What we know:
By secondary structure, the protein is an alpha+beta fold. The chain has helices spanning 3-9, 27-38, 50-70, 80-92, 94-100, 106-113, 118-130, 166-169, 173-192, 197-216, 236-242, 248-255, 268-280, 283-298, 304-319, 327-338, 340-351, 354-377, 383-395, 421-439, 485-502, 523-541, 557-578, 591-602, 609-618, 624-629, 636-641, and strands at residues 47-49, 137-144, 147-157, 233-235, 262-265, 397-401, 459-461, 466-470, 544-545, 549-550, 605-607.
Amino acid sequence: MSEKTQKENLAINPSNMDTSIKAGDDFFHYANGGWIAENPIGDEYSQYGAFTELRELTKKQLNELVNEVAGMTNVQPGSPEQKIRDFYNSGMDTNKIDALGIKPILPDFERIDGLKTREEIQQEIVRLHVKGISPAFSFFGSVDPGNSMMNIATFNQGGLGLTDVEYYTNDDPKSREIREKYVEHIARMFGLAGLPDKEAEKYAKDIMDFETRLAKSSLTRLEARDPIRTYNKMSFDDFQASTPAYDWSSYFAALDIENPVHLNVRTPDFFTEINSSIEEVPVDTWKKYLKWNVLNRNANYLSSDIERADFDFYQGYLSGIKEMKPRWKRMTENLSGYLGEPLGKIYVKKHFPPEAKQRMEELVANLKYSLGERINQLKWMSDSTKDKALEKLDAMTVKVGYPDDDKWIDYSNFEVVEGDWLANIYNGRQFFKQRSLERIGEPVDRDEWIMPPQTVNAGYIPVYNQIVFPAGILQPPFFFMNADDPVNYGAIGVVIGHEMTHGFDDKGRQFDKDGNLTDWWKKEDAENFEQQTRILVDQFNNFTILDSLTVNGELTLGENISDNGGLNVSWDAMQKAIQGKEKGNIQGFTPEQRFFLAYAQLWRQTIRDEEMARRLKEDVHSPGISRVNAALPNIPHFYTAFDIGQDDKLYVAEKERADIW
Ligand SMILES: [Zn+2]
């Protein structure tokens, strides 16, 4: 084994640490300082951390497989290999893509130019919706939160080109600057699409005015996290009566579905605005806006000048990235997005051993047991609510690795053609759109995976009461097949506990054991819960980043509750696992210390200022540094493991610590 491989295999790598820093003063840098010093952010990244490293490794693994497939000359038409090969090769053919320039979307532009009436605008909106582009609003089939066994027709706000509603509405200097840059960007894009400067500028201004109108009637990110506020089940007739200017019967006819009996309108005020916009906004403005949707949504799949302009704004300006990723990486990402499961099926055969699945299932069972014990011992919750919580925990299902043999998504309706990149993108979008529409009124299929196996992430689905761990995350530094227990409990164990706790965070707790949005809490228990979580909100609201910005304690609350629970639950499970075993130090660290070090190293991260500011606004997860330095001081064993006392900077008095699950 070479020195390099040996180094990579170390579960805790002391050279990643900076022991000149006191653990009790800044655990994030104590655990990760060495790594941070050695890993300046490369030009193609907005941030770099454990997730990025593993995603990069996975991309390389995937690309090796893709390259094998891409060179195949004899593949069965319609087979996964044919789809992967032709999708990838068509996307890599930059000569052809560049030669075409704006041409592939000109038929859309010409058709939109020909629209004359408000009825025709509505027809064009639905025509684009069928093609998987969502101007104005979005419509899809999804689980009915009130009856989680069934899918319901769902309307949601949307239609904005900027990534956060508040960029349109806030008055701070940064938001104002983002608006100015966005207007410039729209004009630049229409310039590249062939409009004279003056006209492109006029387009940009009108589009911005219209999107601002939509934004003002939209829920903010925080408001949209509220499952009750966004559950508005109504009859078709009531919805139609509330938005008389919009012809919904024609909309559904064009989607080739019957008028649904019931709908969930997640954001009713927004649809009142859509109604007014259909009546009031000039047809001419609508046309510009629709063209912008076509151009903006396809920018990444057109010639390199257009792709470049899109990169400059969304990734360069908003995230601070200096350089576009190499094309093969972008294509691998596209493949995971559009042909995720066919590619994942090949991936797991080579990179996910069955033993890993077994080991994970054991870990999940141990974590579940510990969370049950903790719920039983809670001081702030009454017995009757505890019983319901335990029932919910017991009913929680788990997916590990990849779909069962007969549960992979059937891609036969996704036609991939040779040598036509944009056609493949459109076929893919249409395929997923169709799948979403076909669900409406049908029972929910809980065997379906929400992310392909190669994904480096994990999740909890409230309406399924289900936790999901794809094969992608079951690799170092999250999961070590052969490392000592403390390391695995500190890393993947906390991740499992985190996902389980999502079932009981401020949002998850509003769903019952079957995934129905229903209140199973005694009033005083709910009040106690809120009081406990208030401590976390305040702690994170006070966590300062980049001198003047702070974490948004409300927006990140669900994640912070889950880290708090994940750490406590996994700690208990680890104690059980190492009971009676020899407790020697490894690399000079006690098992308890290795638990916290393994956790902290998951959140090692270097990040650009632009990206940090963007995430503080848009991300429900708080930054890596606060997931360590704000989360750990709530955990009692953290103090004993590193001998942390009142004089240390991270010290939080016992009374002020959050202890929820
Ligand atoms: Zn989470």
